[in-house]
Write a structure and sequence with these properties.
Blueprint (H helix, E strand, L loop, with lengths): L1 H17 L3 H10 L1 H21 L4 E8 L6 H12 L5 H12 L2 H11 L3 E5 L6 E3 L6 E8 L6 E7 L4 E5 L4 E5 L3 E4 L2 E7 L8 E7 L2 H11 L1 E5 L5 E8 L2 H57 L1
Antiparallel strand pairs: 1-12, 2-3, 2-10, 4-9, 5-6, 5-10, 6-7, 8-9, 11-12
Helix pairs in contact: 6-7, 6-8
Length: 298
């Protein structure tokens, strides 16, 4: 009986020992201040290294309204399709998602933006990528053997007129605005944005359109949300926000172009069908009139 009465007191004593008072916590910190200081210093140091060397990635987004056929007939058809379980608007949005993620559409966008050629500045700590007008150099025309791709070059700007182009095996001198040849590559580099620090090194990366398109298609996120209407949400992560925005705009432009071309093709097919039917009916009427005339003559 006494043992049972002492049991709660024993548990209470253990609880008192497990809990620490504020003076005890301060004493522990004072006793181990060096360990805490080292941990704080290492955390700040590694955070600095991460921010210093890591490349930031930005998310660009765009929304596309998918238009559907209007009118009472289309609404009736959509209701019937939903009742028999074929998806209706959901199925249509899924089809449009696959169109946006198709390689063909992405290849059109890559070609229009010239993304098969990428450039970045060589820095002491990390490289910074250029896009479009942000680069001091633009590659306008080039001829490259597909078998030689991918290929990387180092372009060192000496002044506003001259540069040195090199790869792992060769180095050549070139002039801006003139054709430069190295191995199986030939292109024209133009000096478009003046820079103060000379010499300035740019890393050139050449690749095939289909490789770039496949890589970007895998990064592209397309989400359909029927609750917001027939809207597709497009998202793309990239180190250069302007490049991601331009790519999304180009995808939407080519998507609309394909839609217009498809509508025009449907209209042409309809006109051809009507013309064919009119010719057939006209021939039938001619035969009927000829038969009637022959019957009258008899």
């Amino acid at each position: 009986m006494n043992n049972s009465n002492n049991l709660p007191n024993f548990n209470q004593a253990n609880a008192d020992q497990d809990s620490l008072s504020l003076p005890q916590i301060i004493q522990i910190v004072r006793r181990n201040w060096a360990i805490f200081a080292i941990c704080i210093f290492l955390s700040g140091f590694f955070a600095y290294l991460f921010l210093r060397y890591a490349r930031p990635v930005y998310m660009s987004k765009a929304s596309v309204l998918i238009k559907t056929s209007q009118g009472a007939e289309s609404n009736i058809q959509e209701s019937i399709v939903k009742e028999i379980g074929l998806g209706g608007s959901n199925k249509m949005l899924e089809n449009e998602v696959q169109i946006f993620k198709s390689r063909t559409l992405m290849e059109h966008a890559v070609r229009s933006l010239g993304m098969e050629v990428s450039m970045e500045s060589e820095g002491r700590v990390k490289n910074s990528q250029f896009f479009n007008l942000s680069s001091p150099v633009q590659i306008d025309t080039y001829s490259i053997s597909p078998k030689a791709l991918p290929a990387n070059f180092r372009l060192e700007i000496k002044d506003s007129s001259n540069f040195t182009l090199s790869n792992d095996t060769k180095s050549v001198e070139g002039k801006f605005g003139q054709l430069t040849r190295i191995d199986s590559f030939s292109f024209v580099a133009n000096y478009v944005n003046p820079i103060e620090e000379m010499p300035f090194t740019i890393l050139l990366h050449f690749n095939t359109v289909n490789v770039i398109a496949e890589r970007l298609s895998n990064k592209l996120k397309v989400v359909s949300d029927i609750e917001k209407g027939n809207v597709l949400e497009l998202g793309l992560e990239d180190e250069v926000p302007s490049r991601a925005n331009a790519l999304l705009d180009s995808l939407i432009t080519f998507y609309n172009k394909l839609g217009i071309e498809e509508s025009n093709q449907v209209a042409l097919n309809t006109i051809d069908f009507i013309d064919d039917r009119l010719q057939y009916i006209s021939g039938e009427l001619t035969d009927v009139e000829g038969g009637l005339q022959s019957f009258k003559e008899k």
